[in-house]
Structure formats: structure tokens, C-alpha cells
Amino acid sequence: MSRDLDVLVVGGGSFGTALANILTGLGRRVRLWVRREELAVEINSRHTNSRYLEGLNLSPSLVATTNLEEGVRGSPAILVVVPSKAFRDTAKELGEYVTGDQIVVHATKGMENGTFMRMSEILREETCAIQIGVLSGPNLARELVAGQPAGALIASRFDAVVDAMQSLFKGGMLRTYGGRDVVGTEVGGTFKNIIALAAGVADGLGLGDNTKALLVTRGLSEMARLGVVMGADVFTFGGLAGIGDLMATCGSPLSRNHQVGERIGKGETLDAIIASMTHVAEGVPTTKAVYEFLRSQNSELPIVSAVYKLLYEKLSARQAFDQLMTIPVGGELATLRFE
Amino acid sequence: MRQEDKERIKIEVTHRVLEHFGSDPIAIEQAVFDTIYEERRRLDTEKNKKLAKAQAEFYDRVYREARRAAPDRQRELLREMVRAFAEEVTGNFDPRVYSIATGVLPSALGVLLNALSPLRLLEAAKHGSFSLDEHLQVGGEVEAVQKAAQIGTTVVVPTHLSNFDSIIIGLALYRMGLPPYTYGAGLNLFTNKLMSFFMHNVGAYKVDRRKKAAVYKDVLKTYAGCSIEMGYNNLFFPGGTRSRSGAVEKKLKLGLMGMGLDAYIHNLSTGKPKPDVFVVPATINYQLVLEAQTLIEDHLKEVGKSRYIIEDDEFSQVRKIVDFVQKLLSLESTIHIIVGKPLDVFGNEVDANGVSHDHRGRPVDRKRYVFQDGKPVHDKQRDQEYTRELSRSVVDAYVRETVLSSTHLLTHVVFGMLRERSPDHDLYRLLRTGGRDESLAVTEVYERVDRELATLRRLANEGKVRLDESLSHRDTVAIVNEALAHLASYHRKPAVVRRGDRLFHEDRNLLLYYQNRLDKLGLPGIERVS
Prior knowledge:
The structure holds 2 protein chains of 2 kinds.
Chain A: E1 7-10, H1 14-25, E2 30-33, H2 37-46, E3 64-65, H3 68-73, E4 77-80, H4 84-95, E5 103-106, H5 119-126, E6 132-136, H6 141-145, E7 150-156, H7 159-169, E8 174-179, H8 182-204, H9 209-230, H10 240-251, H11 256-265, H12 270-275, H13 283-296, H14 302-312, H15 317-326
Parallel strand pairs in A: 1-2, 1-4, 2-3, 4-5, 5-6, 7-8
Antiparallel strand pairs in A: 6-7
Helix pairs in contact in A: 4-5, 8-9, 8-10, 8-11, 8-13, 8-14, 9-10, 13-14, 14-15
Chain B: H1 3-21, H2 25-44, H3 49-67, H4 71-90, H5 95-102, H6 108-116, H7 121-126, E1 136-140, H8 142-151, E2 153-158, H9 165-175, E3 182-186, H10 193-202, E4 204-207, H11 214-229, E5 234-235, H12 254-257, H13 259-269, E6 277-285, H14 292-304, H15 317-330, E7 335-339, E8 349-350, E9 356-357, E10 363-364, E11 371-372, E12 375-376, H16 380-401, E13 403-404, H17 406-421, H18 427-433, E14 439-441, H19 442-461, E15 466-467, H20 469-473, H21 476-489, E16 496-499, E17 502-505, H22 508-519
Parallel strand pairs in B: 1-7, 2-5, 2-6, 3-4, 3-5, 13-15
Antiparallel strand pairs in B: 6-7, 8-9, 9-10, 11-12, 14-17, 16-17
């Protein structure tokens, strides 16, 4: 079988499009698979993705397709960037065509609702691929498309996966660092969306930088706590997929999760916000997934609980903050020091 | 092993082990001196003086030469030592030396087999029927395994609880109508005549666990790999040793596990007509374990470190074994051997036609996992991860194919209740003191057994675990009685015993040991209590 492409990017959302655009710009032979025919036509003829990357021009060489089979069969590497909600179905479709020599990397930030499975676990379950990895980091899509310098972590238990992704991105503005900690990378990418929501709420309430720094730092601590329980290396959270991603998401008005939080902080209801958005804010389902997972473990993390109650139990933003502030304080690193 | 293959494998093993060092003079020098060092240390404690002297002279000579040798000559000296190991493993060394060497260790197993011989095992085997029939039950994917052994080469990897396992699995494979298996057996297993029958049937090669040199271990691993490549079915215990805690193995020895993949890639590269290697998970399940007491104490020593106080424990090994075998027979206890679905070397399940399938049942072209630019290649890092994947599949299969029996259920219930009643005791304190209550009301125990039994039966229906005859069909009272009879029959102190309408826990270590089998499976809906 001839593989005449270098990589297939699966998913025409903002991040998928941005990654495909970068790779195309680097001269790689790329296909971007999108589900909707109109979007493929738009990308191929007008070189824009107006729904997800409004007002930005894409590389004229970027080619979109709706033919998944052809794309998969033609590429040694597949990069999956679809929302966590659609992830399993997409993986299942991929599973029809993927073969054992291909590497499959995802850049989706979230866990599966109900099962709390990581995306790499879903890839393993739904396809025959074993050489699997994850790409994550502070990568706001609009900045990537604008060609600004950025960094990401590519984690896999297989050196070959890391090497392949690094050589794909080599020479561009997205520096891809390598790592082995798949679990930590996935937890980091997932968890930061919850903290971004909380940080958005703080902004919406008009609170200042002290509050936000408190939220982000304690959020990082909760992230690491969850991660270590799931088998992550705690140091991962000090890197691009942990604190790095938190800084970008919590500070930037470009972050969707931050936007949702901010509007909640200003008093809008979640239903109204969701109805008005074209993008998926991963933080909303993620909060639920993480909250329920923790409950099943008879455990709790304060910020996660506060955001959950805010989103799903109609607690007001002010009340949520008040509750957070009355939790007894312990040693700062106590949450990380456990056997 | 056929004579011409013996010669071939010795050459091949020596060649490959040397190849691992390439032409790196530092690695070679290190290997030479490490081997000499480890071997000399071993010889210090070698009880067979004559053998020790001969070998010491050999290493003295190598040492003298190696100190002033050029790299090329050092490589030759390494080859000499590797070749000696390979000779020994293959079993074609001086029979005079061999008989002396094997006379050294009066092994527990040797004694065990002497005790077993009245069982007329040998006699029965000669006539093609086994009197053990009612005590040994073979089940699982027998046909699929037979088929796999025809299509390719199989590697059987059983769980390991007892020294009985070597005999039991040999017997079981024979009964399944499978071809002979090659098996790395401790030198001590070759002493006993009866054992020889089984070892012969199993096609054992010789492993000396006292040899610690890395090169020796490399020889063993390579030997296994080469024999798989040559089409010899292999058997090894991937946990490396008997389970100390009583739990089913969760961590497997990846080095040995990886030899199947290694052989597969070799076979593909050389264009073998039957390149496939299939891994067959198997479980060996007992209601009672001969060595339970010793194993769990060993486990607690290791895990609990200083917190665990060891009590003196002395009595005759011989009596223990004879006792055990008699009890097992009089209780009509059944030993279950289950073989799981064959797996490919990447952990995918393989169907009766030898086709691999992914988790969704779609066929997988397994060759592709090792192909790069159109040809099969070895890649150490990648292959290690593939082997991890395989190990995961094997461990999953262990859980599904474990056969639980009354002793596991009752001990789990009793231990769970003890823990609940003394929430302020940590595990070690509970084991020492037994906590607040020295006995439990039998009615309460029944209730809880009822509940867990219902869950277990549901899980068994879903194929998540297996239950023996009693747990599948009998009622709670009968199950508890059976468990009590077993637990009271053989061990020095019964784990739990009934007096009137109360159950007394007498030996918490044993309680922990037997309940671990169930507890550590991590079945959904079964509360973890240890």
C-alpha cells in the first residue's frame, strides 16, 4: 500500500485546522479530514474556516477531505483532534481503516463522560493501533494560525511516536517537546478547562489578579492530585501540559472555557451561554466527568466541586466563591503528599 | 529436543548472546568480569566441593587470561563462558558432573513427589487413564489452543501458586492432547524419577536459580526465544515465582514475555513457513495451597517491613506434604486448570483460524506492527511496549479465567467483616490481634456470603470470572461448610473455625492469603477489603 501523505489530521475544528495549517506551511503532505462537505469546500476554495477561525486566512495549500478511508490509508501518521463528545464515534470509524504500523496521536482535551476514560484509552479500544500518543499544551488556535511561537508536549510510551511527531513539526513555530507520561499529559489538558472556567468566573465577578493566581495555583495542585492518583508523573504538571496550559487558558480571553466562566460570573445562565456558542467549551462536560469520577472514588477536590455546583446545581458565582473561601486551609503541599 | 536441534540451538544462543554485546570492548570486559565475579560468589556456597573445585579452576583460568587479554581475546573468553552456560541449559553436559550437581539440593519438590508416588500417577499414566480425574479439571479454550499449536508455536503462561504447579500443568497439557512443551525447570526438579516422567513430557531444560550472572540470564532468555523460533512450544511462569500474597499475578516478567515477539520477528525476517507465535494464558486454581503459610509470611515480611512481627513457625515439611495430599484427596478437592483464548504477541485475541482481532472483533493484520518500510524489524523500545501490551492482555485473561471456590469466598467475607469491625486497626495490627471481636455470628456471615455470591454469579454469567461447581450451584450453608472443612483440614491452625453458632478466626494470615485471590481481582461490585 502506498502512503503518499505524511499525516492526516482528523477534525476541522479550530485546533485541528490550526495544526493542519502549521504542518501544511512546513511543506508536509497533509490532509485535513472534516465531516461536513461545505467546510471541506470552503477550506479548499476560499482557504478559510469561517465558523471556527473567523477572519483568519489559511494556507492555500491546505487540502481538506471528507473521505476518511482514503485519508487514513494514505498516511503513516494520524492526528485526531475532535471534541471529546465525538471522540469515540470518530475513533470507531478510524478503527475500520487503521493498521498496526500506523501511529495515532490525539490532541483532544477531555475525558469520556460516564466511563472517565482517557482519549488514548479509547483509541486503543476502538482501533488496532498500539503506537498511540497525545499532543497537548498552551495552544490557542488563533495564535497558532497567526504564526506566533508556541510550545506543545507530545507524550507517548513509544519513542517512534514522539520522533515522528517531532519531525513533522520540525522547523516551525510550534516547538514540540517529547515525553513519556501519557496519563499526566491527558489529565493536564483535561483539568485545565475546569480551572479556566473558574478563572473566567473570577474575571466575570470583577475580581483581581490575586484571586486568579490563587485559583490557578490551587487548581494546579488539584490537577496534580488527580493526576497522580491516575498514575501520572507529578513533574508533568510543572510543564507545558500542566502549568503551561493553565497560564494560557486562564489568562487569555481567547479561551472558550474562560469566556463561558466569565459570562457565568456576569450572571448569565449556562443554557443561554451554550445556545449562543458555535464552539464546544470542553470544560463544561469535563467538570461533570471529573466530579463524578471523584465521587465514585469517595473523593473531592474543592475547585472542581465549586465549578460543578455553579454549572449544574444553580449555585451563584458569588456563593461558589464564598464556599471555596470557607473550606479549612491545610498545608499547601498536603494534597500532594500522600502515599 | 531433537539431537540436531540441540547442537543448533547451542550455536545460535551463543552467537546471539555475544551479538548483544556487539564489538563494544567495555561492555565485553564488564560482562567477562561480572560473570566471573558472580560465579565465584556462587561457588563459595556450592555444597558440592568436587564440582565447585572444577568450576573454580575454570574461572581462575579465564580470570588470569582476561586480565591481560586484548579485546578480541576477551570476546573469545566471554564466548567460552556463554557456550558453557548454553551447554548446561541445553542439557548436554558431562553426565558425571550433572549427577553430582543435582544431588545437592534435597528439594521440597523431591520430597513432595515421593509423597505423591502412592497416588499411582505413573501407573495411571502408563495405562492412559488418570485416577486423578476427579481431582483435576481441565477447561477453557482447549480447542482453540490445540488449533493454535497446529498453526504456529504456542507459549503457555500459567499463574503460579504452588510447587505442585509444574506437575499439574504438565499433566493438564498432556490431557488436553497438546504436543510436548519446553519448560525451564530448576535443576532440582530433575532428581526425582516420577518427576522425570513429567519433566520429560514437558521437555524441560535446566535452570539454575543460584546463577546470578546477567550473561546466564541472557542465555536462558535467548534459549527460550530460539526454541520458540525452532517451533518448540514453550511453557513458563511469567510471574517469575510463586505468588506470595495468594493474589493472581498483576506484574509479569517482561524479559521472558518478550521472547515470543522476538521469535516472531525473526521468523518473519527469515521467511519461516509457520512464523506465528501465540501466547496462551492459563490459570491453575486450588481450594487449598500447600505452601500457603510460608508464602503469606514471606509476603508480609516483604511488604510490611518492620511493622510485621514474625512468629516462630516450625514443623516437619515431610509430614506437612503427606498430610496435605491426603487431605486434598479425602476432601475430593478439585484443581482447575483453565486455558484462555490464544493471544498474538501484541495481546490481540486470536480466533480458531489463527486470525488476530482487535477489541471490536475486527481482523487485524498483525505483521504490520513490526513492519517498517516494507520489512520486519526489531526495535527494542517499541518491542518492550508491545510486550507490556501483551502482558496487560494476559493479566486481564488471568482475572477472567480464575476459578474461585468456597475457601476464597468465605475468607473474603470473614476478613471483610473483621476489617469493618476494627476500622481503627491498620492491616498489620488486625493480622496480629484480630481486632475487636474474636468471633462472628454465623448468621451474619451467611447473609454476607449470600450477597457476595449473588454478585459473583452475576459476574460469572457476564464472563468476568469463573466459579467452581460449589459456588455455581450449591447453597450458602453448603458452601460455608465446604470452606470450613477445607480450611480446618490441613493447615496447622485453621484460618477460621466454627464453634456453635459462631465463627472464630484463628489464623488471620491465612485468611488474608485465601481472600487475596478474590479481593485482588478487583471485580466490580466486590468490595476491596485488604
